[in-house]
Design goal:
The protein has 380 residues and is of the alpha/beta class. Helix content is 43%, strand content 17%. Helix 1 runs antiparallel to helix 11.
């Protein structure tokens, strides 16, 4: 699979903001900001506030999509358009064919812009071309879709894998060189999977022994659980020193499989997405870590880029799209990349709680109350 290529270095969010402010001030001095003249009349924006943003998300197994991404995008679109804009939403429930039909319907309904988190990056390309032919901009969200997309909003996905790989090495310490590690990769149809894997292997290769490795169709926890049972039979329950799991849904299934096989101590297991149940597993020590990717920043950036693109607000749009990435079909795609953080029991307060993703009360339910207290986390 071709791996999306990142070119350029993300500017800190403060630097982006300052750059945008400086540009805006310069144009204000000339009496024009983003096509708005001194009389406040738009000179170039193609649409006003009455816009429709199409939002296509890939599945419901990944908890963040329905719990965070969708409501944040809907709220931000409403805020940016003074309550006049709307989001036309559909979830593919892990079916590329369903997502294809959903995008075609949005083209038929003449939405103003589409945000698409592709189930299958390659399969969606013909529908992206149809949208572009109809004059509808398409912004790839979270996963880099193929075809003539206008922009990409996500994270440095290779860095995600690097963070996961470094966490495993840190957990194994001096035992790393003799340790057997199982790799539970994501869906090969998702271009991010190759980036996660490349980043992780960049850290793990020649430092641990990769005993077994599996791809996970559609990021399915059920598939991951079945593959983990195979790994246990092949490697031996007590010989598995760590499990690289590409996301939290699969991590939960991996841990369940280990428990079902009789494990009394769970080896270090990685994850990604900071799902609530994963954060609770991190607090309790069942899951070693998860990669926290700010849903708020990523979803907010996506909503802003979509609205700015439709309204012709080029200064704000360019301030967000500070990077360039290459896909297998296109080069120099403008991109906004959000930083990632390794979430462990040591920084739960400083990450998901500080950002308002979860409250201590949500995390520290009765089952996890003693584990929370052990790390100084108490619910009111």
């Amino acid at each position: 699979m071709s791996v999306p290529t990142l070119r350029g270095t993300p500017l800190p969010r403060l630097a982006i903001t300052l750059a945008a402010s400086a540009s805006a001030l310069a144009l204000t001095a000339c009496g024009v900001v983003d096509g708005i003249g001194g009389n406040g009349v738009s000179a170039s924006a193609t649409k006003g506030d009455d816009i429709t943003v199409g939002l296509l998300l890939p599945d419901k197994d990944t908890a963040r999509f329905e719990n965070f991404d969708r409501p944040i995008i809907e709220k931000e679109v409403a805020s940016l358009t003074h309550g006049k804009g709307r989001v036309d939403y559909a979830n593919a429930e892990a079916s590329p064919a369903t997502q294809s039909r959903q995008l075609r319907r949005m083209v038929d309904r003449k939405v103003d812009v589409v945000l698409v988190d592709s189930v299958d990056a390659r399969a969606i390309a013909p529908d992206v071309r149809k949208a572009k032919a109809a004059g509808i901009p398409v912004i790839a969200y979270d996963r880099l879709a193929q075809g003539p997309i206008d922009a990409y909003v996500s994270h440095d996905n290779e860095l995600v894998g690097e963070v996961q790989g470094r966490a495993i090495l840190g957990a194994l310490g001096d035992r790393a060189a003799t340790s057997e590690v199982v790799m539970m990769n994501g869906d090969p149809a998702d271009p991010n999977t190759a980036s996660f894997k490349e980043g992780a292997l960049g850290e793990l290769k020649n430092k641990v022994r990769i005993a077994e490795e599996y791809d996970t169709a559609k990021w399915s926890p059920a598939v991951a659980g079945a593959n983990m049972k195979k790994a246990i039979r092949a490697v031996g329950l007590h010989d598995i020193a760590a499990v690289y799991s590409a996301n939290d849904g699969m991590a939960g299934a991996v841990i369940d499989a280990l428990k079902a096989a009789g494990a009394t101590r769970i080896p270090p297991v990685t994850g990604q997405d900071a799902n609530l149940d994963a954060v609770q597993r991190v607090v309790s020590g069942e899951q070693y870590m998860t990669v926290y990717k700010s849903f708020l920043d990523e979803a907010t950036d996506a909503a802003q880029m979509a609205v700015y693109k439709v309204q012709g607000r080029d200064i704000q749009y360019d301030a967000l799209a500070q990077d360039k990435v290459d896909s297998p079909t296109d080069r120099d795609i403008p991109a906004a990349l959000v930083p990632v953080v390794a979430l462990t029991k040591d920084n739960v307060k400083d990450t998901v709680i500080a950002d308002g993703v979860y409250t201590a009360a949500q995390i520290c339910t009765p089952k996890y109350r003693s584990a929370c207290a052990a790390i100084g986390l108490t619910a009111p």
